[in-house]
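Hypothesis: this fold can be encoded by more than one sequence.
Test: take the structure tokens below, design a sequence, compare later.
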């Protein structure tokens, strides 16, 4: 393939940039929340299945390593394996040219490379098992006697679903393929043994939910269970998010290839291509449809684009599709990878060095509101300034911190309470605390002699909740401690002194 050296060079540069970001950006809201999973390993959690917690525990050596790089290492490792596996899958059913195209598209995807491949998320491990399940499914639709691959598919889908429940959609995709194109497989007992393997793997998560009023399922059901009125803004956000999360250049390339193949080569689609279209289209169509009535998140449908990346690699590896000659496809991949690299450099520069905040709200108690970059900035500075406040202003060695919501509670615990050995308490409703309802974060016994402070931040300001005020009285006006970015105040740490009732 032409431009091959440039392709490899840009992939290497993108991986090096991701390694840099993983070590130098502080953890975001979701990432730091999943470190709580790793500190208390169990079969299930309020929001998600448990595998992300086990992955963090593995790379952080049982939560003994607290660096961002150690916590994110599992995501990096999974993403690099995913690149190799994607290449090998396309090579098996197409050509080396197609495999390189799929490799470039996967490496250029912000979802695969950043959201799931640098940030530690449930998607990080799910994508590995999702792609492995794709391999098994493609074997199933290719071979006359695919018995062992049904079992492999069931195991991989089970592990994908133990990472994120979205993994179960692969069974729906395979079921649709069998109903439309190979119905005789319904008589194959290994199909049902594969499904049984999935059930066995996810059974600890289901049992945990049964013991906790199926809280995970009701939580997610309530997020997408509104069909009373159209939400065009949500649909546009989902559509635009898919465009950005999967790289605008790659998105256009994938869309053109898919539509041209369906228009001009529909009758020539191989079994592998038919399955990939079903597996890719199912989550994309499902979540676009749900977004018409519900607030959805663009990365929910992103696994569908993983399937379409493999599909496009197979197609372009066999023949040119319209405009996309080998030379032009190589140029588009160069542009897509270059765009990702520039975006990563810009992301780091903006988060680390933008003076102050982009927030239009300049009130002291709301400074930074609406600026998402502050989720990944300033937490070590918060820890240092709070320690100085405790030691120099309060003349204490420790305090008790109180939070009423999972964010910023996870940041407070990971960056402040745990390293400083400050006691920490959480009070609130289940929908506010999430996993903190099961996790008791206190570091050692809470002493009645040490000060108690409710802690919040101006960029995500939360006044003391009813649950907090039922247990404590506020004894003074709040203390505002500035957090600077590039010499300008970006947000404030807000402390309310409390006294137990």
């Amino acid at each position: 393939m032409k431009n091959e050296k440039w392709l490899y060079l840009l992939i290497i540069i993108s991986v090096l940039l991701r390694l840099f970001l993983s070590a130098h950006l502080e953890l975001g809201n979701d990432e730091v929340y999943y470190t709580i999973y790793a500190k208390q390993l169990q079969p299930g959690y309020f929001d998600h299945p448990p595998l992300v917690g086990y992955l963090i525990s593995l790379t952080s050596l049982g939560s003994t390593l607290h660096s961002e790089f150690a916590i994110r290492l599992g995501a990096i490792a999974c993403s690099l394996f995913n690149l190799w596996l994607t290449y090998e899958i396309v090579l098996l059913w197409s050509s080396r040219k197609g495999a390189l195209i799929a490799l470039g598209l996967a490496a250029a995807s912000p979802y695969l490379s950043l959201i799931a491949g640098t940030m530690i998320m449930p998607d990080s491990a799910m994508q590995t098992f999702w792609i492995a399940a794709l391999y098994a499914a493609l074997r199933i639709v290719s071979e006359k006697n695919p018995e062992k691959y049904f079992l492999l598919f069931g195991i991989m889908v089970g592990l994908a679903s133990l990472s994120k429940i979205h993994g179960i959609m692969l069974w729906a995709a395979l079921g649709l393929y069998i109903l439309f194109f190979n119905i005789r497989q319904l008589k194959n007992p290994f199909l049902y043994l594969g499904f049984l393997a999935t059930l066995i793997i996810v059974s600890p998560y289901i049992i945990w939910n049964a013991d906790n009023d199926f809280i995970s399922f009701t939580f997610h059901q309530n997020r997408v269970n509104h069909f009373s009125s159209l939400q065009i803004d949500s649909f546009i956000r989902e559509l635009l998010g898919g465009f950005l999360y999967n790289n605008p250049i790659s998105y256009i390339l994938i869309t053109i290839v898919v539509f041209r193949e369906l228009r001009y080569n529909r009758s020539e689609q191989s079994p592998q291509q038919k399955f990939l279209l079903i597996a890719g289209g199912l989550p994309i169509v499902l979540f676009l449809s749900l977004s018409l009535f519900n607030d959805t998140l663009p990365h929910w449908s992103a696994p569908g684009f993983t399937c379409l990346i493999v599909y496009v690699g197979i197609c372009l590896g066999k023949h040119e599709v319209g405009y996309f000659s080998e030379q032009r496809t190589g140029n588009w991949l160069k542009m897509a990878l270059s765009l990702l690299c520039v975006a990563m450099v810009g992301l780091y520069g903006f988060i680390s060095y933008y003076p102050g905040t982009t927030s239009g709200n300049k009130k002291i108690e709301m400074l930074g509101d609406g600026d998402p970059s502050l989720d990944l900035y300033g937490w070590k500075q918060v820890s240092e300034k709070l320690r100085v406040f405790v030691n120099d202003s309060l003349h204490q060695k420790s305090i008790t911190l109180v939070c009423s919501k999972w964010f910023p509670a996870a940041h407070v615990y990971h960056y402040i309470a745990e390293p400083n050995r400050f006691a920490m308490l959480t009070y609130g409703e289940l929908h506010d605390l999430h996993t903190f309802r099961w996790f008791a974060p206190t570091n050692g016994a809470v002493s009645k002699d040490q000060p108690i402070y409710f802690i919040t931040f101006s960029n995500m300001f939360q006044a003391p909740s009813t649950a907090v005020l039922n247990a404590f009285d506020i004894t003074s006006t709040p203390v505002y401690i500035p957090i600077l970015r590039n010499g300008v105040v970006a947000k404030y740490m807000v402390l309310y002194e409390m006294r137990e009732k």
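Residues 177 and 275 are 6 Å apart (CA to CA). DSSP finds 20 helices and six strands in the chain.
Hypothesis status: open.
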